[in-house]
């Protein structure tokens, strides 16, 4: 069945710093943008605590979502112009797939909550399940708009996002190792952080993309542009997304929510500080509508109220989060992990409850998408199409990509209050001195390990 | 007296999309950035409702404030390198003024609240007075850091921001027709909106700036760069800052806060919806600390709570604001203002309370800074220094600048619910049809005025 | 008759710094680019002596020509997508005009010689006439490619460039106050000089362009973008194109060619220095093929040979041009023009032949395109289309544009050897001292005029 | 001895698209730029035939040279501000080295001729030796300016460029794996080609550079910025510098000069076509002054004259070069090299002299600078300084860099006239058909090798 949505009499545009303009041509796209569920994305930062490290990166999930839509739109237009299907099964592009692709692109992040990773961890929510629910639950404005196209359209769009849609081209546009989602966030996050690690040649990549039976491939003469994209992505991870300060602020956020939940469950949060909109989450009994009330501002508003809470751990953590007082951290590995209890003991001696004032965090949790077909959940590999149409896999022709293929990346860090690095003479000065013997060149070490060298 | 602050052993940098890096060299600057009052600026958008028109412009007052600091730092460095004073009164740059200039630059917006213009209008607050209070009240962390330099340093910094400081060079760095504040926001707002109207040649302008006895002048060979800056500023006002959609959202915000205040004062807001952090403002009895709890998120959190309020005007306006459902608007002028009551009557007939569903708004309220020495509050004019040292005023040598000098700019608009433009057949269809006869080419007209033309 | 050219099986692209890619879709466009006449444009700088002031601006007429083509292509695509004609005379876009528009855009500068303005002045050539000749003379590769479309196609393309083509939309795409030619050179010259005065919002302008019966108009909501373009153009003229150093180098070039021609005509150029490829020009008896042999390198090669010429004026001017030793200059006007003979006399006393070592040059010769319908050759005015389709003229709604409408811009300068400003004590020191009394603040003055002022 | 040059009373600036401004502060730098030898660099393209592939890249060696100077200046300023030497041998920066470093940076390419690589190959010139000669020969303006600093200053500057200067910091600023030369050309060539492969974070790299006893190191927290630079450099080589079309045009240029030399030596070049300025090179008896007369325009002027030469090989190759008619090419390797004689035989049968119409060219000749200390000429490795001052080598901590370390990169190609790929039916159609059986997917293959596959 061919889904259609009326075209606007004249296309509308949204000004965008990354793509110059976002072109909206279908009434349904405009209507989706105007739903309350989509507008809510304006109040959720794309990068969570990263803006506390890179102050420019305060952009919201709204901007990213319209960007993913726009890249998808450009790809579909290119496919239709250059690779239109002539007969079923010829592996070329069927333009009746465009609308489902555009809607899936626009809505792929609709289920995200504030500070997603941390929030999900504490409250056991799942943004992917919620995305599907928002699309298919008749109570949402999103669902009502989608259902206006056809009764099974909401489920279809959801199935693209869930990678269950039968046409692999549509699925790979939205979810693959080089998809519209990743392309937009690399460029956007680069732009807003003011770094340039994430830049790559979008125009050239869009130009060399082409549909084939199994999904989407890239002309081999665009190999280096794809390679450059992979390297840029790697660089953004290690330089921006894995930044220790942002992770430190996430640690504080996590401990803060954890403490609040604990106090609530033990009736110690205080009536004054009743966080109305969070209570359904604390109760672990929340509706979709409850969930959709939440945004970054709701959390920080309650944190502001908690600054004066009588529980000193809660109020102290709220202050650390709102006033940006990150924990410090050091790297550790299998060889030094056994020293962590020593450190926790020292930290406790200095007056900090280790449960709320220390953390281990590895950036492997934010998985790096290196390609590896041998994994349990093998990723769709990136295929390059040669002149004669045959395909070769990217890492087989690129040394650069091969070097980072299948390898996890990132580091493991131990977080602790910066007070431990104080040098002032106070009650705990001996503890501080002892603590510092465990640290060298940003690494946890066995205290005896420090070696001499001359510069 | 020469204020000094220890230099950091190594300068720190903040990554910034506009200036690449912000260089922090003094301990006091680092300490000011780390205060709770300054960190709060991260939670207040620089452009308020403008991000609802230009979705990329979600940057905060924090990013702008460090940008103004950075431009000021570069100017001071240039002055010290090229125009150091040799003897008192020679009109050259005295580098002992640097620290007060840098602190004033960093802190010039510290007193802003959320959605400042609207907020101040409803709650009769004054961000300039609050700025001075934050600097000079011993309860603030800002004051404590400044007082560490010298006991009268907080007052000195405040006097720069209040334009009362004796050295006009320092004052004009922060407040004049071409100052570090304006230069940063034009570039920054351009970058984040994704328009390029606000770009100008910052490097060249910094290069041609020079101190003189009366303040700051510009080498005449940089005249066209200054001209370009003035034109860019004009363009940003008419294209971005005065955008009807943003003003429409401000109108809704204003009506919403106004309604909430009214309900509160009449005990009709509902216990459930007690907006704890706003109550001191509703009571018109708030401390500096109360004020400093507020940010954009606090407002939108209460708006979220009000979505379900039993007062339908409050809940409807909250929905319109959160879900971005702007009013429509048309231009009017002295010749058509007499028609506004007609329109209000029609709007009321269609079921909308005109007090909360219409507004007149002119963008002259957001004054355009054209130069005019004949005004009551004459602005410091822009002086160009010729080869032999004599000064000429900018508009006397630039036709472009002369063309916009002393003229107000902007338009007057009447705002109304978009429902009035509905074409569907419903109860009010006659009202809608009548309403539309008052509108032509975005202007309010006398209904008979429409003339024929062929294209 | 509908001209057609086969489409390439797959479009080809040229990488371009301004437009990212130039998209070539027709075989005839590819063939035109590959002609010898078009490739020759690679060896002629777009901005002549401007690269001696702005060293980055070394780009050729080739890059500009493909850029004009690309902008035209985008406009045609937009017109076809949004404003396709439905019946003859409806004022909308007839896509069968596309090919002639594209060819005219690509070839509009094909007749330019090296350092056009100066060259034409000395040798009485006319690049517009030569352009027409290149298109219509069967000896050229350009003509052969065009004639492959249809026998009258070469003449048609020529008539577009000559503004005689019946469809005003096609003519205005290439030649009007806001056409593809101007739009490309402003952006390109800005980029290569490294200034940003010429930037404007190309995407937005392309978006608001629309065909109408009388040519091309712009949606009124894009008024400020058009205004910004006009101001940018003005800025580029006064800041870049009229730069005194570039004009000074043109003066030297002109005197150098003039001297060579004079020596040639008087048999004093020397056999050794016979400038083979220039002789037909010196003889004023040259074929189209002779003309097409010339490029920037041919001129500088002969200048290099002339460095050693026995005529000291010729060799000195060659050295000044090749080694970039510009004359100095001052502004003068009607009030001071009577002093120029005094200066020339002083210059002659210092040992310089005024015919070859001085010049008057006004930048009005490089006309600024302000709009003025009252002129002898009225320009096509810029029309803005209102919501209801009626048109208003740009300067009637833009104060900024009105301020520069109909006014000439630029200055008149007198050029002289920089030696006259020497301060060293040599034979001519009295002359130098006397000379300097005529100069103040970059202006020619009556020696008594200097007034005192304090700074 | 401490070399000094008077500072200009006010620094001069050159506008530059890459660095915004080039700041000239010393009289000697200004004087060097104004020499005839330096101005000649304006007439030699930085990238030779690359502009025939990437049309935007028409920039000259002049722009690059001032860019290298500017980067060096910034590094020196940073070193002086942050790492000034306190006592001899402390491994910190001695600012009396600044002037020699700046001059070496500015002049490092002064000896280049037109289309250097090809030119040197044909005429056995050596631009490095000529650079040294220009610096030290009293006949040059460059030498005279340098000698004005001190008598041994010219030799000192030359020794920096020749890597013989005792202070390794100064040498490494100009010549190492990450030096001012490479940093400027990557950014500049990226900008002018309009690709973005060569971009990297210059500001950050300059920030993390620091002097140490053995030369220049980088703070370890800047590791990823250095890594990004290395990858960018790799990308520029494979995507831009090794482009087959540019190499094809070099092949034609080489054959053309070779043919001209051959004809000259056999008195067959023709009196009419006597290339006056090239004759000393043909005679292999040229002075420094002869060499310095040459530039790109001199070569193309003679090529233009040769278009009509009676030798058909010479005239045909001149046409192919001037009108940009590149040879085609295919990759080959050790397994297929034995087939090349077959191809040459076919090409000869089709009427082309293989000596002038075919070539083998591998891009290994344009060496890729991967780091490898085991090589005969070991490169200075890139050292990263850890927090405690100890150094680690880059590839030991970067997987990405390790993956391209010590590996040659590029390909081997066989070039032939595009006529061989004609499909038209003419005399040689059988030859063409046979020729094509050797080609598959841009590779030379054994004709039987083609395998079937379906897409």
UniProtKB/TrEMBL annotation, chains A, B, C, D:
Residues 61-186 form the HD domain. Signal peptide: none annotated. GO terms for biological process: dGTP catabolic process. SUPFAM superfamilies: HD-domain/PDEase-like. It holds the Pfam family HD. Transmembrane segments: none annotated. PROSITE patterns: HD (PS51831). InterPro entries: dGTPase-like, HD/PDEase_dom, HD_assoc_2, HD_domain. This is HD domain protein. It comes from Dellaglioa algida DSM 15638.
């Amino acid at each position: 069945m061919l889904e259609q949505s009326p075209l606007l009499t004249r296309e509308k545009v949204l000004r965008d710093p990354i793509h110059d303009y976002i072109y909206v041509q279908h009434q349904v796209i405009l209507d989706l943008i105007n739903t309350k569920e989509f507008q809510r994305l304006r109040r959720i930062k794309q990068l969570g605590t990263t803006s506390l490290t890179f102050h420019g990166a305060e952009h919201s999930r709204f901007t990213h979502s319209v960007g993913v839509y726009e890249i998808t739109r450009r790809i579909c237009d290119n496919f239709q112009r250059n690779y239109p299907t002539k007969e079923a099964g010829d592996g070329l592009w069927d333009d009746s797939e465009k609308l489902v692709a555009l809607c899936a692109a626009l809505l792929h992040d609709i289920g995200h909550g504030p500070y997603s990773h941390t929030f999900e961890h504490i409250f056991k929510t799942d943004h992917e399940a919620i995305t599907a629910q928002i699309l298919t639950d008749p109570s949402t404005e999103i669902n009502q708009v989608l259902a206006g196209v056809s009764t099974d359209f909401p489920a279809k769009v959801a199935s693209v996002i869930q990678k269950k849609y039968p046409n692999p081209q549509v699925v790979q546009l939205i979810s693959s190792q080089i998809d519209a989602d990743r392309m937009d966030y690399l460029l956007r996050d680069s732009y807003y952080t003011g770094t340039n690690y994430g830049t790559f040649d979008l125009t050239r990549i869009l130009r060399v993309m082409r549909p084939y039976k199994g999904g989407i491939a890239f002309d081999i003469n665009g190999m280096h542009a794809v390679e450059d994209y992979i390297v840029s992505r790697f660089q953004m991870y290690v330089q921006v997304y894995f930044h220790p300060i942002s992770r430190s602020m996430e640690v504080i956020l996590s401990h803060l929510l954890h403490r609040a939940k604990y106090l609530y469950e033990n009736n110690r949060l205080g009536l004054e500080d009743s966080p109305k909109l969070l209570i359904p989450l604390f109760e672990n009994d929340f509706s979709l509508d409850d969930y959709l009330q939440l945004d970054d501002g709701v959390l920080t508003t309650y944190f502001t109220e908690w600054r004066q809470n009588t529980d000193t751990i809660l109020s102290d953590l709220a202050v650390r989060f709102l006033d940006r007082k990150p924990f410090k951290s050091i790297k550790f590995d299998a060889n030094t992990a056994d020293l962590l209890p020593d450190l926790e003991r020292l930290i406790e001696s200095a007056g900090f409850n280790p449960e709320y004032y220390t953390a281990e965090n590895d950036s492997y949790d934010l998985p790096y998408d290196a390609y590896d077909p041998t994994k349990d959940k093998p990723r769709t590999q990136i295929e390059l199409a040669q002149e004669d149409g045959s395909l070769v896999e990217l890492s087989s022709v690129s040394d650069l990509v091969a070097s980072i293929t299948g390898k996890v990346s990132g580091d493991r860090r131990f977080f602790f209050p910066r007070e431990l690095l104080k040098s002032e003479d106070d009650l705990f000065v001996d503890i501080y001195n002892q603590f510092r013997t465990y640290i060298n060149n940003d690494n946890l070490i066995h205290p005896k390990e420090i070696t001499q060298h001359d510069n």
